[in-house]
UniProtKB/TrEMBL annotation:
Keywords: Acyltransferase, Transferase. It comes from the Bacteria. Belongs to the acetyltransferase family. RimJ subfamily. The keyword Acyltransferase applies. Its EC number is 2.3.1.267. This is Ribosomal-protein-alanine N-acetyltransferase.
Length: 218
């Protein structure tokens, strides 16, 4: 196992795996993705509203072209610095063209004695419940442990988000407790349940664990 400490060494990483003959792939976020990204956000406005990050100063999600550009510039700088991995989730059904279906962001990546990070993600409503997000999270976690040499990965989830809770349950994340008023979400400070995995707990990896399950969720 190696620890990637240089600037942007795996900025272009594109982890991918098959799901019942279809393909799930994590591709780096690019400015060229703006139109597809914004279209997907618009049709998922109501679906994502309860889970969208906000701030006390601006309690509405920034679903705008300017917001996309700012997000992409900020995350790209983090990727080049080695502190973030901003991915979009692409899904290719058999016989069809690749389709953008969501987003998964890693960061901040902390080195030194911590070697840890956290994940955040969302998925298009029409692709939920098919195992896509479960496999996307598995791909990201395996990359972080096996390629980046991290020791701990965390995911925090609102207690009401049953779909996301199913993802961490299926992948074997360990619950660590409740964080009161942890993040500003949907216009207010929200409690989150905290889940984590360490290097010692993943065995052959989460993609292998995901494939070994009877059915996909997420």
């Amino acid at each position: 196992m190696r620890l990637v400490t240089g600037r942007g060494q795996d900025f272009s990483a594109r982890p991918a795996a098959e799901l019942d003959g279809d393909l799930v792939e994590l591709r780096p976020l690019r400015m060229a993705d703006e139109h597809r990204f914004m279209a997907l956000r618009v049709i998922n406005t109501e679906w994502l509203a309860p889970w969208d990050a906000t701030t006390p100063e601006d309690p509405a999600p920034r679903n705008s072209s300017a917001g996309f550009k700012e997000m992409t510039r900020t995350l790209s700088r983090g990727a080049q610095a080695g502190t973030h991995l901003p991915w979009l989730i692409w899904f290719t059904a058999q016989g069809e063209q690749p389709r953008l279906v969501g987003q998964l962001t890693v960061g901040p990546i902390i080195g030194g004695s911590a070697r840890s990070t956290s994940l955040g993600y969302w998925l298009d409503e029409h692709h939920a419940g098919r195992g896509i997000m479960t496999l996307a999270v598995a791909l990201a976690v395996d990359h972080l442990f096996f390629r980046r040499g991290l020791h701990r990965v965390e995911i925090t989830i609102r207690p009401e988000n049953t779909a996301s809770l199913r993802v961490v349950e299926k992948l074997g994340f360990r619950e660590e407790g409740l964080r009161l008023r942890y993040l500003h979400i949907d216009g207010d400070w929200r409690d989150h349940r905290s889940f984590a995995l360490t290097e010692e707990e993943i065995g052959e990896g989460l993609v292998a664990r995901c494939r070994g399950s009877q059915s996909g969720v997420g």
